[in-house]
Amino acid sequence: MKTKTIVTGVIGADVHAVGNKIIAYALENEGYNVVNLGVMVSQEEYIAAALETNADVILVSSLYGHGEIDCQGLRQKCEEAGLKDIPLLVGGNLVVGKQDFVEVEKRFKEMGFTRAYPPGTAVETTLADLKEILGLS
What we know:
globular
């Protein structure tokens, strides 16, 4: 079985790098091939990297509160690029202010995301979900 590839990074104008490195480290320790695009990543960069590496998942991080804005249209762009079925995961401080995460998650799922995680989600939760999504569990 081929090693699963995950493209990850911090979307938009967000420069929060520490969590991104922790996530990449945890993914690598689980045996994934990690393509870490770093910070200030555009939607187009995620898609180009996913196409170039034949990625199995795109994992988007955002901590500065504008993730909802930055992620709008990502699913449609993936579909246009031929990545119709690629799982999209997103997590962090995705919206400005204190909002009920049930509602935030609903909006992200409506935008075509497979999973959305609130601030403070343990990386183990994401790792378990990835195994399920990729049929590794």
